[in-house]
Automatic annotation (TrEMBL):
InterPro entries: AIM24 (IPR002838), AIM24_sf (IPR036983), Trp_RNA-bd_attenuator-like_dom (IPR016031). It comes from the Bacteria. NCBIfam families: TIGR00266 family protein (TIGR00266). It holds the Pfam family AIM24. This is TIGR00266 family protein.
Length: 266
């Protein structure tokens, strides 16, 4: 194996975190801002790109690797955590919003996994984190993830996160699955990804489910999330107070609601 062989344990239910156990000199790389805690003896270092072996080919190679990450909306930098002690040491990374952390064993999934642009959490050193261009124009324009998705390649462990409850679907050859474009977490390299028009004027205008489905055709493995972050953020924004007050502030029901809640403002 080119990637470091790391052990891990996932804790929690709604707000999970993954604990990585590092042998001496082993390294795990993670997105900036995902760090939770680490034991003494682990050194933290900021690096360009993902620190994979393919990147270590001079300054140009490092800049190219980092530049790919900018296209996916990520930072130029990642953080590497190396165990410099003589015994095993642990470092933990947390999911940024309620959901599930998905362990991806790339060696068992053909060496490549394609996922949402912002779903990558951490991986063993040696795993390459890059971009995957959508080949079909229609899929790129209307597929919910744009022309560019994120990919992780190699033979080690990687971890991605999803929102809400996670569903794992094993598709047989030719089997078709239709998914809301925002609910797609990722899929293996053999899955054929496309989009499909919902159909029907009533469905399109009044259905409230968007204009397109994501279609995934097997064989391969697909991961689906029940609560995309964009949907969660939209609900929070829609419910946020406007100009310092609630949306129903001028209504009778709004006043009664505040009284019942113990809010004495007038």
């Amino acid at each position: 194996m080119k990637a470091h062989e790391i052990d891990y344990q996932i804790y929690g239910e709604e707000m999970q975190y993954v604990e990585i156990e590092l042998d001496p000199q082993e390294v795990v790389v993670a997105e900036a801002g995902s760090f939770m805690m680490m034991e003494n003896g682990i050194k933290m270092e900021t690096i360009f790109g993902d620190g994979s072996q393919d990147q270590q080919q001079g300054l140009f190679g490092k800049l190219l690797s980092a530049g790919k990450r900018v296209l996916t909306g990520e930072s130029l930098f990642m953080t590497a955590y190396q165990n410099q002690d003589f015994g095993k040491r642990k470092v933990s990374f947390a999911s940024p919003y309620p959901g599930k952390i998905v362990p991806i064993d790339l060696q068992q999934l053909g060496g490549k996994f394609i996922c949402q642009k912002d779903s990558f959490l951490c991986a063993a050193k040696g795993v390459s984190v890059g971009i995957e261009f959508t080949k079909k124009i229609g899929t790129g324009l209307f597929g919910g993830e744009g022309f560019i998705m994120q990919k992780v390649e190699g033979d080690g462990m990687a971890f991605v996160h999803s929102g809400g409850t996670l569903a794992k679907k094993e598709l047989q050859s030719g089997e078709l699955l239709r998914v809301d474009t925002g609910c797609l977490v990722g899929f293996t390299k053999d899955v054929d990804y496309d989009i499909e028009f919902v159909g029907g004027i009533k469905n399109t205008i009044f259905g409230g489910e968007g204009v397109f489905f994501a279609t995934l055709r097997g064989p391969g493995t697909v991961f689906i999330q029940s609560l995309p972050f964009s949907r969660l953020a939209g609900r929070i924004y829609a419910s946020a107070p406007q100009n310092g007050g609630s949306r129903e502030e001028g209504s009778l029901l709004g006043g009664l609601g505040r009284m019942l809640d113990g809010d004495n403002r007038f």
